[in-house]
From TrEMBL:
Protein's name according to its UniProt entry: protein-tyrosine-phosphatase
Pfam families linked: Y_phosphatase
GO molecular function, one term: protein tyrosine phosphatase activity
Cellular location(s): Membrane
Annotated segments matching region Disordered: 51-82, 99-130
EC number(s) stated in the UniProt entry for this protein: 3.1.3.48
Domain Tyrosine-protein phosphatase: start-end pairs: 167-427
Uppermost EC category: hydrolase
Keyword Chaperone: no
Domain of life (superkingdom): Eukaryota
Organism (species): Danionella cerebrum
Keywords: Glycoprotein, Hydrolase, Membrane, Protein phosphatase, Signal, Transmembrane, Transmembrane helix
Domain Tyrosine specific protein phosphatases: residue ranges: 342-418
PANTHER family from the UniProt entry: CYTOKINE RECEPTOR, RECEPTOR-TYPE TYROSINE-PROTEIN PHOSPHATASE BETA
């Protein structure tokens, strides 16, 4: 059970805390649930004033009930009218926002095979009732963002207590972040065939726009979004694995956006299913992808990833070729995460070191199959490791929230979200061990361990 901090709750102006907090302790409620109950008391009249007649009625929770370590089963805590308190809190936070309507394309998603629905792993994101507009503010009490690096491991221990109950709740609160944004360009009839999965579509506000071709008014579309980074605003482009019919658009994007690094975190074929079409030449012969000429210069195959160097040029500017490096991580399974944290951390470090050595690195393109799960995990880990190196802080939750405001489903599963935490924990442990070994007293201390 998480200890309820009365002083902290008082500091945000919840005047009922003194009377409610002891009851929450007595009933063994989590910090999130306690805060939600407080918000229900304060926000119910305000919520009613903004045009919604009642809170959504409770039903079965989408997430599975969890079993705490002590073996006693957790009770779902409900409000007086039967609704879940997390639903109530999500509604209160978003009472000023209009609820988005489900489009006909959404209702048809998932009915025509692999193209219609993509979920990495078993802990999948599914479309949820539109009233569940839960955002990260509901964890403002249980999650200090960003965290000092020295406090991260103790914070993670709290999140992982009771079968990772708080970690699961924290991830669940990110479910609908950004999902009310329009995706009209992706839903145009001329662009539907350019989407690998019908439920993974780019937001209009952050989508990458290609230069339009005269013969095709929809030729500016590609399933890709700009993603902010730590160094400049649009540091990454998150995109899907190219389809046979979108390879030309992929290379046109690379050329127009002045891309020098491409990160690929999927295999072309996994478990007998095509996840990404091969979009580069297999030998040294130049290949044309639309107006972009691509030539493979070298290929270095390592046990866990492959590095390929290309020379690319535009037919109208053959005198001014560019160099592009592709980092292809080859041991990430479609379902689940890599077996160890060390492998992906080293890969992320390798990519970042190479980018930092480049004089004008430009935008980095990152893709997997759908361009959300493994792609989001890579980008978040890259950003968080930079935070650690530069400021000794950690903000995983804030990074995921930021990504999801720019592209849906980024860091798609709870398993991936947990894996990022484990990577950071292991990096901090390795750093601590390295500091201890550098200490002149370490050999003496180590002999007593």
């Amino acid at each position: 059970m998480v200890e309820l901090d009365d002083t902290l709750l008082w500091s945000i102006g919840l005047v009922e805390t003194q009377t409610l907090a002891p009851k929450c302790r007595a009933e063994g409620l989590s910090l999130l649930t306690s805060f939600a109950m407080l918000m229900v008391r304060r926000q119910l009249p305000s919520y009613m004033e903004h045009g919604l007649s009642e809170f959504p009625k409770g039903g079965k929770r989408n997430e599975k009930q969890r079993q705490p370590i002590n073996g006693t089963k957790k009770r779902p805590h409900r409000g007086s009218n039967g609704c879940h308190l997390s639903d109530v809190y999500g509604a209160c936070c978003n009472r000023h926002s209009a609820l988005p309507k489900e489009s006909p394309q959404d209702s048809r998603a998932g009915k025509s095979g692999d193209k219609d629905m993509h979920v990495e792993g078993s802990s999948q994101h599914t479309d949820v009732p539109r009233h569940k507009k839960m955002i990260s503010h509901c964890f403002s009490l249980s999650h200090t963002s960003p965290l000092p690096a020295a406090s991260f491991e103790s914070h993670l221990s709290k999140l992982q207590a009771d079968s990772s109950f708080l970690l699961s709740e924290e991830f669940e609160a990110l479910r609908d972040v950004g999902r009310n944004q329009s995706q009209s360009a992706a839903r145009l009839p001329a662009n539907r065939s350019k989407n690998r999965y019908n439920n993974i579509l780019p937001y209009d506000s952050t989508r990458v726009r290609l230069s339009s071709l005269e013969s095709d008014p929809c030729s500016d579309y590609i399933n890709a979004n700009y993603i902010p980074g730590n160094n400049f605003r649009w540091e990454y482009i998150a995109t899907q694995g190219p389809l046979p019919g979108t390879k030309d658009e992929f290379w046109r994007m690379v050329w127009e956006q002045n891309v020098h690094s491409v990160v690929m975190v999927t295999q072309c074929v996994e478990r007998g299913m095509v996840k990404c079409d091969r979009y580069w030449p297999s030998d040294g012969e130049p290949l044309c992808y639309g107006d972009v000429v691509v030539q493979l210069l070298s290929e270095k195959v390592l046990p866990e990833w492959t590095i390929r160097d290309f020379k690319i040029s535009c037919e109208s500017q053959l005198r001014y070729p560019r160099m592009l490096r592709q980092f292809h991580y080859t041991i990430w399974p479609d379902h689940g995460v890599p077996e160890t944290t060390h492998s992906l951390v080293q890969f992320v470090r390798t990519v970042r070191d190479d980018i930092n050595r480049t004089t004008s690195p430009g935008v980095t393109v990152v893709h997997c199959s759908a361009g959300v799960g493994r792609t989001g995990t890579f980008i978040v880990l890259d950003r968080v490791l930079q935070q650690l190196d530069r400021k000794s802080i950690v903000d995983i939750h804030g990074c995921v929230l930021d990504l999801r405001l720019h592209r849906s489903y980024m860091v798609q599963t709870e398993c991936q979200y947990t894996y990022i935490h484990q990577c950071v924990r292991d990096v901090l442990r390795a750093r601590k061990l390295s500091c201890e070994r550098d200490n002149p007293l370490f050999p003496i201390y180590n002999s007593f361990v």
